[in-house]
Amino acid sequence: MKEQIENQQEIARVKLLKKLISAIMNDGFQSLRMDDIAKKMDVSRAKMYKNFSSKQEVIEGVVNVFIDYIEELEDPNLNDDEESFGVWFQHLFEQSVSLVGKISDVFLKDLQLAYPDLFDRLKGTLSKREQQTLKFYQYGKDKGIFNQINEKFILLQDDILLREILNVKYLLYNQMSIQQVLYDYYQFKKVQLFKAEKINIVDDSRIHPVIEHIVEKFNRNLHV
């Protein structure tokens, strides 16, 4: 019973933190007071303090949300089943898009200045994910499924190109929808990564609901 109550409390805390994430990714959190945080969470001060005792606890909660999300994608269980490479490629694509859309340079800068220990924890988790991803790309090349390209360039591409094309200004200037951009980028990465004779192992029908979900969250955050 006690464990069930604690789980419910944690779910409630995470919901409040997710209401805050969009705002602090855009503007940072250095200037925020607890009153401001309560307003962005759309709750009373009393309810906020019931869940968080300090600003540091709030930001630590945000970092934990990111870390938990990153660690959801465990080491791939890859074997001789070639389709598993397609499935894991799609999982990586979804997570890459989500992380680029959530973890901003503004937030990371504030985190490094205000709470260096939390910054190191988050960067350590991101670094672990990067090594895991590089290992996956290298394994795919060894198995003859992926093209012989520099896997580090693929990661850099996600960090720079993906971040740029998800920018609202870019979308407006080029008169493109977020849905179109995501699907085009997905196809671009698939053709870039998989050998021509192996590309049919990727089931594109699985990515459509993923992109729809990302688009829904993207549009919702625009109106926060």
Overview of this structure, please?
The chain is mainly α. It has two domains: 1-63, Homeodomain-like (Arc Repressor Mutant, subunit A); 73-222, no CATH class. 75% of the residues lie in helices and 0% in strands. The protein contains eleven helices and no strands. It has helices spanning 2-27, 34-41, 45-51, 55-71, 83-102, 105-114, 116-142, 151-165, 168-173, 178-193, 207-222. Helix 1 (2-27) crosses helix 4, helix 4 (55-71) packs parallel to helix 7 (116-142) and helix 5 (83-102) crosses helix 8 (151-165). The longest helix is centred in the middle third of the chain and has 27 residues, at 116-142. It is globular, with a radius of gyration of 19 Å. The two termini are 36 Å apart. The mean pLDDT is 88.
Task: Name a few traits of the molecule.
11 helices, 0% strand, globular, 224 residues, 75% helix, Arc Repressor Mutant, subunit A, mainly alpha
Give the arrangement of secondary structure elements.
Layout: H1 2-27, H2 34-41, H3 45-51, H4 55-71, H5 83-102, H6 105-114, H7 116-142, H8 151-165, H9 168-173, H10 178-193, H11 207-222
Q: Can you describe this structure in just a few lines?
A:
The protein is built from eleven helices and no strands.
